[in-house]
């Protein structure tokens, strides 16, 4: 699986050796551990940014890890870039680095012991239609899936979620409008979103793809699981 994304913090600095510092902060221990299991432990990370650095360039990656006072600093190389958002995710770049376990290995067990379940919000289907998805999510990660009606999802709920999964098939207007509300929330914490799209909602596909990672239905189970794990571990970078 390709490396996955970060979230905003603050500054832009210059180093005599590596010109750009990317600051990456995780929402909580659960999100960090998903990112660690899917990407970080393999020496990679996808960084969500509208201005990706060209492939081949070296960066300094500053990882702010839950429970650690000082960020872990690693030299990273840009392996690939996504210039614009598409069905698979936001604009950004895949980074490759080494020796992360030497820097944070001792903290992983403590994070596992202290982590709380991830909050996953499911919107756009009746509760019975979400049962298979909820069971799959619970088998994939330590999480508490919650099924919510599109009209009940307020800003506080959207902001506190670790992942929003929205099926836009049955009511494209209301569900895509909800994704637009999520995108408009002014907050340093970015809630990742996945939009499930059946054939009847094809006209809303482009609109949804600007706001979330789109998965077309019916979807292969392995692809679905992989895309969900990628979104759960996604973070955004600042320079």
**Can you identify the CATH class of the largest domain?**
Alpha Beta
Number of helices: 7
**Class computed from helices, strands and strand pairing:** alpha/beta
Please state how the strands of the largest beta sheet are arranged side by side: 1-3-4-5-2-11
Radius of gyration: 18 Å
CATH fold field value of the largest domain: Rossmann fold
What's the pLDDT, averaged over the residues? 85
Low-confidence stretches: 1-18
The description of the largest β-sheet is: 6 strands, mixed, barrel
- Roughly what fraction of the amino acids lie in strands? 25-35%
Run of helices and strands = EHEEEEHEHEHEHEHEHE
- Tell me the number of strands: 11
Distance between the first and last residues' Cα: 25 Å
Indicate how many domains the architecture comprises.
Answer: 2
Structure description:
The protein has helices at residues 29-38, 100-114, 131-140, 155-160, 172-184, 205-209, 221-232; strands at 21-25, 44-48, 58-64, 72-82, 92-97, 118-123, 143-148, 163-167, 193-197, 213-216, 235-238. The chain has 239 residues and is α/β, with parallel strands linked by helices. It folds into two domains: 21-113, Beta Barrel (Thrombin, subunit H); 116-234, Rossmann fold, CATH 3.40.50.2300. Strands 1-3-4-5-2-11 form a six-stranded mixed β-barrel. Strand 9, helix 6 (205-209) and strand 10 form a beta-alpha-beta unit.
Short description:
The chain has 239 residues and is α/β, with parallel strands linked by helices. Helices cover 30% and strands 27% of the residues.
